[in-house]
Amino acid sequence: MTRFVFVTGGVVSSLGKGIAAASLGALLQARGYKVRLRKLDPYLNVDPGTMSPYQHGEVYVTDDGAETDLDLGHYERFTGVHATKADNWTTGRIYSDVIAAERRGHYLGGTVQVIPHITDKIKEVIQAETEGYDFVIVEVGGTVGDIESLPFLEAIRQLANELGPTRSLFVHLTLVPYIPSAGELKTKPTQHSVKELLGVGIQPQILLCRCDRPIPENERRKIALFCNVRPESVIPAYDASSIYAVPISYHEEGLDREVLRHFGLSIYGEPEMGRWQRIVDRIRAPEGEVTIAVVGKYTNLLDAYKSLAEALTHGGIAHNVKVRLDWVDSQIFEDDEAAVARLEKVNGILVPGGFGERGTEGKIEAVRFARERRVPFFGICFGMQMAVIEAARNQAGLKGASSTEFGPCAEPVVGLLTEWTRGNLVERRAADGDLGGTMRLGAFPARLAEESLVREVYDGAAEIHERHRHRYEVNVNYKDRLEEVGLRFSGMSPDGALPEIVERPDHPWFIGVQFHPELKSKPFDPHPLFRGFIGAAVRQARLV
Ligand code: GLN
Which CATH fold would you assign to the domain 288-540? Predict the structure, then answer.
């Protein structure tokens, strides 16, 4: 029997609903249940693929090529369950499906309305592909009280009514702020937020209360009384030193017990939390520290590189070191030649994914620094493309080397590809086609060259599958010329047409990859490339 847990949020945004949902998933999993997580987002974009990282943070890409909300990254990192296209629906995507059906004549002359057509569609997507799961946790984006989320709230209200309490549960995340002048925690915002929910017909059964200090018993009782929930179901959600400490903290406060009790499931026995305890122990007591410079463009908005920052932390967990990140805006290397000195203090340099020309010269400078000074280097997607351009310009003497992303150039070492194969299928796109959903997206295989660093990093694997999100490719026609100057193409698509990985045999650790390995890293299973990169940084720092 599949049970649905709906997670809503109130009072203010950014309370960490995604982490809350992911942590609940991890707890139920630790109790032996099979879970799946999904998210409903109230904005009108069909997916976040066309949104600026400044607006939306990272775009998380699934194996099947969906561009999704970054919370899906938390779901995967906390549960190891890989998300698919079916797990993230925006208002825009719901409407666009309903309107397309209307154009096809699907509604047979009926008037198409928010209720029931949009809400029916929402109920359909929530329940799609959920067979075989014990729990489906559905996070509703936005804050209760927003006009935008109303159709989603109406749909989950209806669905819970249809499923009944034995198969549905509402968990509401709120804020219990501390007011210094009064010296008190305030429960009123929570009361108001629950009232908003009641106004749309939803009575939450569990409240997760974000607060920065313990909630006294009488305040807890007050919340329970006014919000119509059991006192035991008012669960304090304390600020944690690491997001990976949240599942343990929720368990200590009784979240999993209350969820099981609601569904009439056995609350006896303890969840298997060993994996989480080990991660938390390592994060709390590292044996050393390495500093990694992340040379990118969106460095003042850390949400833009969420998975990357997490994957670097995982690499640190693998070596029991703390990874300090020095976010460097690559443009500083363009404005000031001396700025590159900042890189002298770091143990590794990472150039992450990115779009557009601004800051590229600075990124190329950072690659050159890493190559010449033999600092461990990791280039991801755009970062690999910059590494290839750097080798072409500074080593192969191709002064006009660039990417056609920035306009026509003399030596297009990185260029637009309009056709590629996935299995037996050929996918095509037009240079002037839609921007949304037209990149090379999702998991593709790569073959790893024998006796290469990357093969060693992947523990000897001959073929790997990694997730992509890019429009441009390294031009294979330059392969021989670049290999002559020391940039080895050690990973290729199976047909040999697309360079997937480059490395430098004459360098301690220099790898560029066209894909995004950070998307698949887990705290309990650090990605081999991040494990390898941080390992190289540890050696550079002479910690071993
Ligand atoms: N802008 C580059 C491209 O589209 C790289 C994209 C990325 O780093 N994700 O190919």
Answer: Rossmann fold (3.40.50)
